[in-house]
């Protein structure tokens, strides 16, 4: 598999591979397809005839299973009449590998030089999962249905759920995105998140399938190039490697990333732009309460923001961005503590995720981009992906643009060869590469700009007036005008923006793929008709989540300090809210379900319970949901002892009932209290029988435990949620 595709540098010995022969491939367009969306449902994988370059020398074969509109008679002419055009690709990142697949399928001779394949194989831990959005998935389908099918299969679908921006502090929704309908309305696959390692392995395997095992050469650092006149007339590009070897080709593509050497030689030294942010990142075993409805969230703050995304298999990937000078480092073992200093006051979705990540899995890198450039190509050399347009990661489109680039470049080169009746030597390569640049420049520049704007917005967000200059003004909780206006602008523009980002390249790839809707892309845990409801109503997401509600107090195991600590295990005491439960003083003869160890607390102090859709249940002391205005919620009643109950620091009236929401902080008997109970939601698959209301227990946050049998209704919920019935401790 990978091992044979990833050849060692010792094999990197000669400049030429044997001619590739004739390949019919679907990428050169003939009649554009205008198949309406949702025409049919594709099976999960499409049968594909596999051909290597060697095999292709002798036979004319179709590389991909013919799609109704995909076969191209023009493509049959590619390389029929001469030796194939040879393309050297510097860099086996996403862009370089996708380009290699696309070109090999067109019968080009391809050589990929990669400086360090550990990045592909995954030894380099810094390569976390990547979002491959609908536009890039469509380009992949147009290049190679088999590769696309593998990516679709391996990826975790996030576009089938609600995604969006939230307030970092409170966790409240700011703006939600629907990336599902822009995709399915145009017959595109729905956005996935996939491990970079898996993605690159899928691509490298395809390169091997179509070209043989020696196409990708490891340990080959491209240092420079020059154009030389050939003895036979015309020019070629000579590519120099660090080890002194040189190789010749008709075309050199610099897909060597943000620090590209090809770029430096092509357009001269330009400074990368430090985004102002360092980025901590990690992956943890964690299942947010609303995972069945929410795919990813960006939590906004001032000078800091946090991104969390489902990456499948019970794991969440997160990025914590913090504004500071570049080059900062942390002492070993202190990253989580630093993150909790920065994000510790933010909502549970952020804090719990950080706590659940093992210290050694927290990584850090400074974020750079490059200002847009308008020359990507000169002579026989062109740039692709980050070497041409490294952008801020906020839109999750950097890699997607590299994939689109690869599609465009392969199609432009193929068309040019076909236009010369397959005579590669007759192609004006410089003109084709300029055309490629012109075809990509507008779209890429616009998306580059949007990514910059998204980064600016995410990091300058202020929830309340006074933030950053007056604590007192901030305490008045007047919504910041920037937040209000920004939200309005986003609500008005976002649908069109998403439509263009995800669907703006659709016509371009249409000749080589068929629009379709896949049943597998539909939301798994809720009816698609509820999308609108979740987009419009934040509370409906809370209520529809497959989650238990807890009233729980956390403290650091070693010190007993409230709140819990980053690096020591956290102890929890609390109850699952459901049937009516009494809160009272420790050791009380009333046998409260939740004990509070404080003499200020009454023996029968308060009551908590859940009311279902029917609103049938009520507190045993006759408590009811007065004034809630809605059934199906969680409630707290102060039992009128005069000792006092505080919710979020405000004392509620004696004997009154309040509705509880996730994140609410509840104190009994006094404020401030040494035991602060928080309302938390926990996905049903994480339910733990170790949580009980009489004493503190050490509970792992989000760590996988031994599977245990679920109670029947948990099993149903877990199955609906697409989990394998695995029980995970809190
Ligand atoms: C935190 C973060 C999150 C991101 N999330 C997303 C996301 O969700 N979705 C998305 O689409 N994009 C995302 N991106 C952007 C994405 O990672 C890049 O845009 C993408 O990797 C660019 O692909 P590339 O092939 O152009 O370059 P790279 O992936 O950087 O690959 C370049 C390759 O060239 C090799 N190389 C370098 N120099 C040489 C040389 N001289 N000779 C030979 N080989 C060389 C490198 O080893 C590397 O393998 C994110 C970026 C960051 C920083």
Helix vs. strand class: alpha+beta
CATH topology of the domain at 546-700: Tumour Suppressor Smad4
CATH class of the domain at 546-700: Mainly Beta
The shape is elongated
The distinct ligands, each listed once, are: flavin-adenine dinucleotide
**Radius of gyration, Cα only, in angstroms?**
29 Å
Taking strands numbered 1, 2, ... along the chain, how are they ordered across the largest sheet?
1-11-5-4-15-22-21
Strand content: 15-25%
In helices, the fraction of residues equals 25-40%
Q: Major sheet, described briefly? A: 7 strands, mixed
Q: Separation of termini?
A: 38 Å
> Low-confidence parts lasting 5 or more residues at pLDDT below 50?
1-26, 28-76, 614-630, 703-730
By DSSP (H or I, 4+ residues per run), the number of helices equals 20
Just name the CATH architecture of the domain at 546-700.
Sandwich
Instruction: Count the E strands.
Output: 34
Organism: Pleodorina starrii
Cofactor: FAD
Protein name: Zeaxanthin epoxidase, chloroplastic
Pfam families: FAD_binding_3 (PF01494), FHA (PF00498)
Compact overview of the structure:
This protein is an alpha+beta fold and 730 residues long.
